[in-house]
TrEMBL record:
Gene3D superfamilies: Luciferase-like domain. Residues 33-383 form the Luciferase-like domain. One of its GO terms (molecular function) is monooxygenase activity. Keywords: Flavoprotein, FMN, Monooxygenase, Oxidoreductase. It comes from Siccirubricoccus deserti. NCBIfam families: FMN_nitrolo. Belongs to the NtaA/SnaA/DszA monooxygenase family. This is LLM class flavin-dependent oxidoreductase. The keyword Oxidoreductase applies. The lineage of its organism: Bacteria, Pseudomonadati, Pseudomonadota, Alphaproteobacteria, Acetobacterales. It holds the Pfam family Bac_luciferase. FMN binds at residues 53, 99, 149, 153, 223-224.
Amino acid sequence: MHLVGFLQAQNCTNLASSWRHPDSRTDFLSADYYQEIARILEAGKFDLGFFDDRLSMPDRYGSDHVHTVEHGIRCVKMDPVVVLTMMAAATSRLGLGSTASTTYYEPFHVARLFQTLDLMSNGRAAWNVVTSLNDGEAANMGHAEMMAHDARYDRADEFVEVVLGHWDSWEDDALIVDKASGRFGDGHKVHRLDYKGRYLHSRGPFTVPRSPQGHPVLIQAGSSGRGKRFSARWAELVFVHYPTLDGGRKDYAEFKAMVAAEGRDPASVKVATLVYPICAATRMEAEDKAALIQTLPLEIDALSLLSEALNFDFASKGLDEAFTTEELDGIQGLQAMRDKVVRAIAPRLPTVRDFITVSGRGRPVHPIVGGPKEVADALEEWFTTPACDGFVISATHVPGTYAEFVQHVVPELQRRGLHRKDYTGPTLRDHLGLPRSVRGDWRGKLAAE
């Protein structure tokens, strides 16, 4: 099974209350903090550490950021790629993934950034393709409002085409670097892109040669119907959140069928579902840890994070006030989260309290609590059913969650033959069982269209 560490270059994990945990390190502004995480993940033979990212702090709730800073709700957000370079220096095999927005960045910049990271890490980089989702990000990046949901994905399709086109610009043997002849490279083996689309234009030539794995791995995590189609078309590693085993089995099969419908090999697209393991040497110890973790989240955490994710000010309604149909239809953020809540509460319209309860925002969702056997049993069932190809390990505190998982659960998974005992190669593509990318291998489907 593939294992991914879900990271944040911020003051907490994706669980906003994690900074309050008594065992969480507080030096999150230091390189050593992230390098320790990287060393732990590499010791556990994880495929990669991956940074989620947003381009604003949560300030949609009450249209104010004061509560965000006061309560430490993901208010510190550093550049994750810079942090990854620190982690790369402390490791030699761990894959290194980061988010970069197709809505607010330019494709040439993203292509150069991640191809450079891939070279500097000897082929361990991955780009998580996101479209951004709230007005705070739009305002920070100089836009009056957020683009409509499907338009963001239409632009993202062009964005990925441009990035892949630039990554293909250099042939593998374009560099010569022969001092005796004075010839640095073969100019005929570096190609200009000259891309002209509806949303994007980019000329080239690109300025970074090919890397040990050809180009970085593409990650995606779209959960809407449009997002899933985007993932099926482009992604090599997909992050999902399947709340139940039966639902996960169904969604996993449906997504793999979508990949096949795009003319791609479903086995070449790995699906990893989010899990919150709370583990220890024994189940009793793990249950004690879980009880402590449940005391950490505050109601304001959920309200702030819901406002951010759904791009709607939850301070504008009372806790038990129902949403109107018009308000629900106007939500342009994480529509899959909105739809989940609406389905769970139907036929009545949901209230703010329903959104807090059903979404689980700000709390560990369906944590797997137990000793090595109990946690490994749960992961094995999901993996062999199958409902996924691996797991995104989400931390309740840092670095403790990763250290406890590597200490207690990884040896049990290795004993069962479910997880590698060592890396089989140096690149992230090696870890994922993917071949080195071949120039133009992504163009076949586009040509067929």
